[in-house]
Specification:
- The complex is a heterotetramer, with two copies of chain A (618 residues) and two copies of chain B (352 residues).
- Chain A is built from 20 helices and 25 strands.
- In chain A, strands 11-10-12-13-15-14-23 form a seven-stranded mixed β-sheet, with helices on both faces. In chain A, strands 3-4-2-5-6-7 form a six-stranded mixed β-sheet, sandwiched between helices.
- The longest helix of chain A is centred in the N-terminal third of the chain and has 20 residues, at 195-214.
- In chain B, β9 and β10 (268-272) form a beta hairpin.
- In chain B, α5 packs antiparallel against α9.
- Chain B is globular, with a radius of gyration of 22 Å.
- Classes of the chains: A alpha/beta (618), B alpha/beta (352).
- Chains A and B meet through α1, β9, α9, α11 and α12 of A and β1, β2, α2, α4 and α10 of B.
- The structure holds thiamine diphosphate (2 copies), iron/sulfur cluster (2 copies) and magnesium ion (2 copies).
- One iron/sulfur cluster is lined by residues 36-37, 40, 42, 71, 141, 145, 220-223 of chain B.
- Residues 70, 112-114, 141, 143-145, 152 of chain D line the site of one magnesium ion.
Chain lengths: 618, 352, 618, 352
C-alpha cells in the first residue's frame, strides 16, 4: 500500500450513478463482490428505470447502485451515501438531494457542456457555481483519462470511453483498499471470446487504481475492517438467486422434479433465467404464453407428481387468481412466488412495494384460503422457498411466497448452509387404495389424513388409484361431484381448517431488556430498516421490541399474545396497512400503522423517528 | 413408474407402458353416472373413445384426460383413467405441464368450441405451435351448451341465440384453418355419429407424436339441434361430405361423381369425379398450403362440401421430447447437479 | 267459485319439483305471475342442477321452484313448503326431507315402477309403505290424465304427457283460486307459431283446473287474500331483470350510451340476454371471447364516453382483476357486476353465495381501492345499478356491484318507480383546457376536482384535450409518466381518499323499540332471512335491531357509531365472515359471525334461533 | 361530436371528421420525450407514422392510439392524439369496445410480438375474426425487449436467450399465416426502415374498412440486433425480399430475375423471373388460400424469401358497422326505447 494517509471507518455508504448504458449495475455488483471477498458485512440497493435505455444524459435514464459496507453486521443499504460516483450531469442532478453535507463526490466532468447541463435542467455549471461547496468534490475526466489509457488498443475513443466504469471501479477500489483480482478474473471469463474488450476493461480497471495511487487529487484512503459475523463460509447473494437455489434445494430434498411455469415480468424474470441454467438438476423451465398458462402448466406438472412452481409479480399474479382457486379446490401442491413491485396496474415496474399481501390472502373467488410465507432478507429467500415447498407438499395446497423488488435485487452476505442440515420433504405419494367398499378396495382422493387434513396425492401411473379431480365441489371423501348443501359447507370449513392447522414457528420477539412497552411488528423486506431503526432507538436509551412475521397465513399461534403484551403496537408497511388490517381484525388490537408507498425501502432514520414519536405519544 | 414398453408402432405413444392383459370398453368406463342430455352427441363420442382405447393396449393408469369447462368437458369423469376437469379454456396449458414432465403418460385434452376457441384460443394455438405430445379433441357443436345456448366462435354468422336475438355478427373460425395457421402438425376433422371414421381419426391422432388436433362435429340436440344434419342425413351427406384419404384422389358424391381440382388461377374448385386432374390428397406434405386450401372448401354457413379426415400429419420434434433431451444433455455434459457446489458458487469467504 | 269448502290462510309456501325436462321453472314462473297478479306479496327461490338435463328420473336431475305468497309483506321464499308438487319419485325423494309433517303432497304416480323407484334408491314404494303417513298425500296420475285429456289432439301419448306441468299448474291454481287467464295469454304468445302445442297446453291447464273442480279428491280450496302493500303500481321482478333495467335507466338518466362487454357465465348470463333485447335503447352488447376482453372492451368504450359495464360471476371476476386495476389507474367510470355463486373455483355454479366481498375489495395487485355496492333484494338490484353508475361517473372510478344467485333468479313484487323520480347523472365531460402554462392553455387529465377528487373525463373527439393515459404511475396533475417516489406515495393516498370520500347514505337501523341491546348486521341477499328472523324474535317479545349495509366501500360514515351503540353485534353471512372481518378491522368491535356456506339462503327460523342464542349469551 | 365528413376515398375512415387546416408531422408529435434506446427501430416507425398522418387530414382529436405493454407499446405517448397505454396483450379488446361505440374515431392498435402474439394472441385473432374497424400495427422484433431479452413467439427455433440458455424449443408463429387462418380481411407485412413501403402499407391499411393487420419487422438493437439484416442489407435484400403488389407478377431479385410459380403438385416454388407462369398477385381474392401459400415461402429461420406488402385485402361487413345497423334497425322498427314502458312491462297490478 502506498504511503498515503489512511482513515479508519466503521461503515461506508457508496452510490454509483450514471446512464442506463454506463454499466452502473455491473460496476456495483463487482464492487460488492470485492467488498464481500474482503469480509465486510454489506447490503445493496440497485435502482434503475423501467425503460431499457432512456436517452443518454437525461434524468429518466439515470441508473444507480448503492452499497453499504461495514466492519459490523448491518441491516440496510444505508439511508444516505457518504460517497457518490456520478458519471455525468444527470447522475449528479438526480442524486445530489440524497447526499448529506460533507459527502464525497467523484464526478466525471468529461461533458459538462451547456447542452448537457441544460438537458437536465441545470442553469449554471454546478462544478463552478459553488452550489457544491458543501461537499468534497473530485471532478475527474474519467472518460478522457480512460480513453487516453486505452489509446494503444485498436478502439475508437468512443469505444474506449465505454470502459470508464471500470476505471471508476479501479479508482474506488483503491480508495477503499478493495482487492481487484476477483474483478479481473470476472472480466477474463465474461469477455473470454472478445479479447480486445477484455484487455481494455482490465487495463481501465488497473488505470483507475493507479490513478488513485499516483495523483495527488486523492489525499486519503479509507479502511473498513472485515466484519466479525458468525463463523461459517459466506457468499454474497441476491434474493432472486437465493429463491431459485431454494427451489432447487426443495426439489432435491423432496426428490420431486422441479417444474417452473412462468411468463417474464420484472422483477421476477431473473428467477426464470436462473432456473433455466440448471437443467442438469432435472429442472424444467417453461416460458408460457401468459401467466395463466404458466400456473396452469405448473399445476398440470403437480398433478403428475412434480414440484410445480410459478413465478411472477403483481399484475401477473392477478391473472393467475382463477387458477389459484382451482389449485385450492384440487388440493395439489403448488408454489406461487410473487416478487412484488409498485402498483396499482403497471405502476412502477422496477420499484419495490409490499402491497400484494391482501391479493394473496383474498384475490380469488369465494372462500379459497392459501398459506403465505414471506422472507425478510435476500438470504432468507432461500429458506422461504423450502418452507413454501414443505407446506405445499405436506398439506397438498398452493402456497404463496411474497418477496419484493428490494429483496429480489438487493444482496447481502449469506452463510452457506450444509446441505444435510436442510429439511427433507416427504411427498408421501398414495400407492394403494385407502377405503374398503364391502370387500372391494377403493381409492378415495378426498379421504384426508386426520391430523394434517391433507388429501392423498396419487399420481398418474399408479395402478388402481385412477381417479378424476375437478373444480366443482366434491363430496368429502369420495371426491365425486356433489351439490349437497351440507357437504359444501363442510368442505369450505375443512379447507379453512387445513390451512389454519398448518404448523408454523412461533413469532420471536426481539426485546433485549424485556422492558419495552412498544412493539414494532413488520413483515417482508422492512426487516432491515425496522431492525436498524430499533437499534438506533435503543442506542438512544429507549426500550422497544421488534417482531417480524414470516408466516402470514396462518399467523403464528402466539401472535395474539405477543400483540397484547405491549401497550403500543406499530406496524410500518410499504403499503396502506395490509398486515395491520389482518391483525386488527383477528385480535382486536389497536395496531398503529406507518405507511409509505414510495417504491423505495424505508430509511432507518425515518423509522427511528416514527418509533420515537409513537413512544412519546403515551 | 414405467415398465414394459412394447413398441406398438405408434410414435405418439412411445414411452407409455402397455399391458398384456386384454382390455374391454368396460375397463375404460368409470362408475360415474353420465349426465348429458338424452340424445346428446357427446354420448356417441364417449362410447367410441371408450371402445377404441383397448386397441392401444396401454396401462389404464398411464392414460390421462384433461378438460376445461362445458358439457363436453365433463368427459373425463366418465373415463376410468386419471383425469382432471379443470377450468374454462385452460386444459391445453395444464396438459402441457403434465406432458412435459411425464413422457410415460398418454395425455388427452377434451374441449369445446367455446372452451377451446373462445376463452382458450390462445392456449390452443400455442400448444399446437409448440407441438407438445397431446391429443386434443375439440367437440364442436357450434354453440355454448352448458350456459344454455349462446352463440360460439364457430356459430354461423347471423345466428339467433339468447345473446344475439337479432343474429350474431362475427364470422366464425374455421378450426382447421386456424390450426393450420398456428403451425399444427396434425389436423383432422370427424363427426360424432360416424363411429368408424371417428375411430380411424383417433387411431391416427394417437399414433402422431406431437399435438394432434381433432375437431369433432357434435350435435347439441337441445340448443343447436341438427347443426350437422346436412353431413349426416342420408339424402344430403354424400353431396356434402368430402372424405380425405392420404394418397387418394379427392372424390365425393354418391358414386364419387364429384372431385376437387385446382383451377387456372390456382384456387381449388369442384369438378367431375372423373376428371384426370382431380387432386390427390397428401397429408404428409411439409407445406400446409394445400391442406389450408382444402379447409376453405366448406361453406361456413351451410357446411356444404365439408372435408373430413386428416388434413395434415407431419413430423416435427415435440416440445416435451426436446425439453427432456436438453435435460439429458446437460446432465451428460456437466454431470448430475451437485447442490452443495451450486449454492456455494465461486466467490466465498470464510469466517472462523 | 265452486261450493267447495274454503280455508282462509295468511301465507302458503309451495314447491314444484320434477325433472329438468319437466318445465318446473316455467310452471313456477307462471304460478308466480298469477299470484302477483292476484295481489299477494311473494318471494321465490328457483333451484336447479348445473347439468342442462341430467338423465330423467334421477336425483341429480331434479329441478325445483319454491314460492312463498301471503296476505302481508314477506321477506323470504319460506323455510319449508306447505305443499309439494312432485312430478316423479326422484322429485319426491329429493324434497321430502324439507317438508314439515302435515304438509300436502301432490304427486304424479304415473311411474312408480320398481325400476323408477330403484333409480333413486327407494327400496319400497313410498306411496304404499306408509312412510308418507304423516303427510296429506294426493297421488294423481298427472301424466295419464293429461294424455287422456289431450287424446283428441294429434300428438303421441308421450308428447301429450309433456303438458303435465300445465295440468299440475291448472290444478294448483284452482286449489288457491289463482286466475289462469294470464297464463293462457302467455301460452298463446309463446307458442303462437306452434298452434298444436299451444292448444294442447291450454287444454291441459284447463283440464287441471277442472280436475280440481270436479273430483272429490280435493276436498278443500285455500284462499290467501291480497296483501296490502304501499300504494303504487307493482310488477313481479327478478334480480337480474331489475339489474338490467337499472343499467338502462342509468344510461337514460346520464345520457351515456350503454355498452356491455360480457362473457356468458351462470348466474350472470341473463343480464347479457336481457340487455341484448334492448338495442332500441341504444344498448350495445358485446359477447367477448373471454372475461378479460369483456371488461377490456367496456373500459375502451368508457374511454370513448360510454357507460361501460361488465357482468360476470366469481371465476370470471377473478380473471378481470388485472384490468380492474388498470381502470383504477386510468380513473375511468366502469360498472362491474358480480353475480356471486358457490365457490371456490367452479364450485356450485347454480347455487348462491356471498363470498366475493373480499375479492371485490382486494382482488388485484397493489393498492387499488374500488367502491362496492350491494342490493339487498331482487327489486333493489334496479337501484343498485343506478347507484353504481352514479358513483362510477361522478368519481371516475370502477365500481363493483355485488348481487348473487339468489337475488338474480329470485323474484318479488316491485313497486315501479316513476322515471322522473329517478336520479339524474351528470357526465360533466371536460370540454376545455383546465390549466395555463404561461400563456398557453393546457389540458391536465389528472388535475382533480378539489371536492370529489375526480379527474376530468375528456373523450376522444374533443379538440384541444388530446391526451394519453396509461397504467404506469402518473404525475399528479399532468398525468405524465412519473417514477418520482413522493408523487407515487401521494397518488396512492389520493386514490384512496377519493374512494373514502364518496358520499353514501348513512346506515339505517331498524330498532322499533329502541331498547335493543343486540344488533344484527348484514349485507346483500341475507336481508330477507335476517329481516324475517328479526320479526320472529320480536314477536317472541324480544328487542333486537337490524342494520343492512348497501354501500360496502366506503362504509357509511355512521357505521362505527351504530356498531358501538350495541352490546352485541351479530353478522350472519353466506361466507366465512368477510364483512365481519372488515368491521372488526376498521372499528375494533367484537362482531360475532354466523356463517353457513350451503349454496342456499338462510332460513328465517335458523337465524331466529341463532339470534336468540346470541342474546341469551349475555 | 362529429362534423365535417369529407369522403377521402378511404372506406376505413368513412365517418371520421376531417379538417381543412393543413397538418404537418409536428401536429402529431407529442411533447413527451421519447425513451427508446438510441438506434431502436421504433424511432423509424414513429417518424413514418407521424409523417403519414397529415396525409389523412383527419381531425387530430378523432384519432386514437391504443397499445399494450412493451417497448413498442410506449408508442401512444409520442403521438399528439388521444391514446391509451393499457396492459399487456389487451389492446385489441379495449380498442374493440372503443371502435364499436365510436364510428367517428380512427382507432389504431400498437402491439409487439410478445404483447400481440403471446399473452394477447386470443384477443388478436378474435378481433380479426370479427373484423372490427381497427388498424393493428404489430412491431415484430422477434424478442421481448422491455423485459430485457427473452425469446418470443416469433423467435426462430433454437434461439439462445436469457430464458433459453440451451436454445428455444418451439416453432415460431408466422404472424401472416396465423392472421389468414383467423379469417383476417387485411393482412400485410412491412419493415421499420423502409419508409416508403411502410407508408404505402399504412395507407392501404387505413383505407381498409375492418381489421387491418400490419406486421412490422422492427430491429431491437439491444437484444436482437440484426434480426432482419438479410432483408435490409444491400448485398442480401434483393435476393431475400419478395415485394407483393396487387395484380403484378411476383418477381424479385436484383433485376427481377427470380419469380414464384405453382409447381405440378400444387405447391408454390421459386423459378426464373422470366417464366411465363409466374404467379400474378391477387390481394383481393375472396379465398385466402393463395395468400396463405405465399406466407409459407419465407424460411422461418433465415427469413430468406420473405414476402412483404399486402397479402390480403378483401371486404367483409365490419363488426361495429353491423352492430350500429342493428341498433338503428331496432329503433326504426320499434321506435326509440321508452324507459317507463320498459320497466312497467305487461303484468302489473295496482294498489291504491
Ligand atoms: C371463467 C369462466 N367463464 C365462463 C364460464 C361459463 N361457461 C361454462 S362452459 C361455457 C361455454 C361452453 O361452451 P363449449 O365450450 O362450446 O362447451 P359445450 O357446453 O358446448 O360442450 C361457459 C361460457 C365458466 N365456467 N368459467
Ligand atoms: C401481465 C403482465 N405480464 C408480463 C409483463 C411483463 N412484460 C412487459 S412487456 C413484455 C413483453 C414485451 O415484448 P413485446 O410485446 O415483443 O414488446 P417489445 O418490448 O419487444 O417491443 C412483458 C413480458 C407485464 N407488464 N404484464
Ligand atoms: S346442452 Fe347440448 S351439448 Fe350440453 S349435454 Fe345437452 S345436448 Fe349435450
Ligand atoms: S430494448 Fe430493443 S425494442 Fe426496446 S427500446 Fe431498446 S432497442 Fe428498442
Ligand atoms: Mg359448444
Ligand atoms: Mg418484441
Amino acid at each position: 500500500m502506498s504511503a498515503r494517509q489512511v482513515h479508519q471507518l466503521d461503515r461506508v455508504v457508496i452510490r454509483f450513478a450514471g446512464d442506463s448504458g454506463d454499466g452502473m449495475q455491473l460496476t456495483g455488483d463487482r464492487f460488492t463482490s470485492e467488498t464481500a471477498a474482503f469480509g465486510n458485512d454489506l447490503s445493496t440497493l440497485p435502482n434503475f428505470p423501467a425503460e431499457i435505455r432512456a436517452p443518454a444524459g437525461t434524468l429518466p435514464g439515470v441508473s444507480s447502485f448503492q452499497l453499504h459496507f461495514a466492519d459490523h453486521d448491518i441491516l440496510t443499504p444505508g439511508d444516505a451515501p457518504d460517497v457518490l460516483i456520478a458519471m455525468n450531469p444527470a447522475a449528479l442532478k438526480a442524486n445530489i438531494a440524497d447526499l448529506p453535507k460533507g459527502a464525497t463526490i467523484v464526478v466525471d466532468d468529461a461533458d459538462f457542456s451547456a447542452r448537457a447541463l441544460k438537458k437536465v435542467g441545470y442553469d449554471g455549471n454546478p462544478l463552478e457555481d459553488g452550489s457544491l461547496d458543501a461537499y468534497k468534490v473530485h471532478a475527474v475526466n474519467l472518460t478522457g483519462i480512460t480513453a487516453e489509457a486505452l489509446k494503444d488498443f485498436d478502439l475508437t475513443r468512443k469505444e474506449a470511453g465505454r470502459s470508464k466504469n471500470m476505471f471508476a471501479l479501479g479508482l474506488v477500489s483503491w480508495m477503499y483498499g478493495r482487492p481487484i483480482d476477483g474483478t479481473i478474473r470476472f472480466l477474463e471469463s465474461k469477455f473470454a471470446n472478445k479479447p480486445e474488450i477484455r484487455d481494455a476493461n482490465i487495463a481501465a480497471l488497473r488505470a483507475g487504481w493507479n490513478y488513485g495511487e499516483t495523483t495527488e487529487d486523492f489525499a486519503v484512503r479509507y479502511e473498513v475492517k472485515p466484519a466479525t459475523l458468525p463463523a461459517g463460509t459466506y457468499r454474497n447473494i441476491t434474493g432472486n438467486l437465493a429463491l431459485a437455489y431454494g427451489l432447487i434445494a426443495a426439489s432435491k430434498r423432496s426428490g420431486l422434479p422441479l417444474f417452473l411455469g412462468a411468463y417474464p415480468i420484472t422483477p421476477a424474470s431473473d428467477i426464470l433465467h436462473e432456473l433455466a441454467k440448471h437443467k442438469r438438476f432435472g429442472v424444467r423451465t417453461f416460458q408460457a404464453e401468459d401467466e395463466i398458462a404458466g400456473i396452469g402448466a405448473a399445476l398440470g406438472a403437480a398433478f403428475g407428481g412434480a414440484l410445480g412452481v410459478t413465478t411472477s409479480s403483481g399484475p401477473g399474479i392477478a391473472l393467475k387468481s382463477e387458477t389459484v382457486g382451482l389449485a385450492v379446490s384440487l388440493e395439489l401442491p403448488l408454489v406461487i412466488c410473487d416478487i412484488q413491485r409498485g402498483g396499482p396496474s403497471t405502476g412502477l415496474p422496477t420499484k419495490t412495494e409490499q402491497a400484494d399481501l391482501l391479493q394473496a390472502m383474498f384475490g380469488r373467488n369465494s372462500e379459497a384460503p392459501v398459506p403465505i410465507v414471506a422472507p425478510a432478507s435476500p438470504g432468507e429467500c432461500f429458506d422461504a422457498a423450502i418452507e413454501a415447498a414443505r407446506i405445499a407438499v405436506k398439506y397438498r395446497t398452493p402456497v404463496f411466497l411474497l418477496s419484493d423488488g428490494y429483496l429480489a435485487n438487493g444482496s447481502e452476505p449469506w452463510r452457506i448452509p450444509a446441505v444435510d442440515d436442510l429439511p427433507t420433504i416427504d411427498p408421501a405419494f398414495a400407492t394403494a387404495p385407502n377405503h374398503q367398499n364391502g370387500g372391494d378396495p377403493e381409492f378415495w382422493p378426498y379421504l384426508r389424513d386426520p391430523e394434517t387434513l391433507a388429501r392423498p396425492w396419487a399420481t398418474p401411473g399408479t395402478p388402481g388409484l385412477e381417479h378424476r379431480v375437478g373444480g366443482i365441489e366434491k363430496a368429502d371423501g369420495t371426491g365425486h361431484i356433489s351439490y349437497d348443501p351440507d357437504n359444501h359447507d363442510r368442505m369450505v370449513r375443512v379447507r379453512q381448517a387445513k390451512v389454519d392447522g398448518i404448523g408454523v414457528k412461533d413469532l420471536e420477539v426481539d426485546d433485549p431488556s424485556g422492558a419495552a412497552k412498544t412493539l414494532v411488528i413488520g413483515w417482508g423486506s422492512t426487516y432491515g430498516p425496522i431492525g436498524a431503526a430499533v437499534r438506533r432507538v435503543r442506542r438512544a436509551g429507549n426500550d422497544v421490541a421488534h417482531a417480524h412475521v414470516r408466516n402470514l397465513n396462518p399467523l403464528p399461534a402466539n401472535t395474539g399474545d405477543v400483540l397484547k403484551a405491549y401497550d403500543t403496537v406499530l406496524c410500518p408497511e410499504m403499503n396502506s396497512g395490509q398486515l395491520r388490517m389482518l391483525l386488527r381484525a383477528r385480535y382486536l388490537v389497536d395496531v398503529i400503522g406507518y405507511n409509505k408507498v414510495r417504491g423505495l425501502p424505508f430509511k432507518a432514520q425515518e423509522l427511528a423517528t416514527v418509533i420515537k414519536d409513537v413512544m412519546d405519544r403515551d | 413408474m414405467t415398465d414394459t414398453i412394447v413398441d406398438i408402432g405408434m410414435p405418439g405413444l412411445a414411452g407409455v407402458p402397455t399391458t398384456d392383459e386384454p382390455q374391454t370398453k368396460k375397463d375404460f368406463t368409470s362408475d360415474q353416472e353420465v349426465r348429458w342430455c338424452p340424445g346428446c352427441g357427446d354420448y356417441a363420442v364417449l362410447a367410441t373413445v371408450q371402445g377404441f382405447m383397448p386397441e392401444l393396449g396401454l396401462r389404464r393408469e398411464n392414460v390421462v384426460f384433461i378438460s376445461g369447462i362445458g358439457c363436453s368437458s365433463r368427459f373425463p369423469y366418465y373415463m376410468n383413467t386419471y383425469g382432471m376437469h379443470s377450468i374454462h379454456g385452460r386444459a391445453p396449458a395444464i396438459a402441457t405441464g403434465l406432458a412435459s414432465t411425464r413422457p410415460d403418460l398418454s395425455v388427452w385434452v377434451v374441449t369445446g368450441d367455446g372452451d377451446g376457441l373462445s376463452i382458450g384460443g390462445n392456449h390452443l394455438i400455442h400448444a399446437m405451435r409448440r407441438n407438445v405430445n397431446l391429443t386434443i379433441l375439440l367437440f364442436n357443436n357450434r354453440i355454448y351448451g352448458l350456459t344454455k345456448g349462446q352463440y360460439s366462435p364457430t356459430s354461423e354468422q347471423g345466428k339467433i341465440t339468447k345473446s344475439t336475438p337479432m343474429g350474431s355478427l362475427d364470422a366464425p373460425f374455421n378450426p382447421v384453418s386456424l390450426a393450420l395457421g398456428a403451425e399444427a402438425t396434425f389436423v383432422a376433422r370427424t363427426i360424432d355419429s360416424d363411429r368408424a371414421h371417428l375411430t380411424s381419426v383417433l387411431r391416427a391422432a394417437a399414433a402422431h407424436r406431437g399435438t394432434s388436433f381433432v375437431e369433432i362435429y357434435q350435435n347439441c340436440n337441445i340448443y343447436n339441434d341438427g347443426a350437422f344434419e346436412i353431413l349426416k342425413n342420408r339424402d344430403t351427406r354424400d353431396e356434402a361430405l368430402i372424405r380425405l384419404e392420404h394418397e387418394h384422389p379427392i372424390r365425393f358424391g354418391a358414386d364419387l361423381d364429384q372431385g376437387v381440382r385446382r383451377n387456372a388461377s390456382g384456387q381449388l374448385e369442384l369438378c367431375a369425379g372423373g376428371e384426370p386432374d382431380v387432386l390427390v390428397h397428401d397429408a404428409h406434405h411439409s407445406d400446409p398450403s394445400v391442406a389450408f386450401a382444402l379447409s376453405r372448401l366448406a361453406d361456413a354457413a351451410t357446411l356444404a362440401h365439408t372435408p373430413i379426415g386428416i388434413f395434415r400429419d407431419v413430423d416435427r420434434p415435440t416440445y416435451d421430447d426436446q425439453m427432456n433431451a436438453q435435460l439429458q444433455h446437460a446432465a451428460d455434459a456437466q454431470g448430475e447437479g451437485d447442490l452443495a457446489a451450486l449454492i456455494t458458487g465461486n466467490d466465498t469467504w470464510t469466517i472462523e
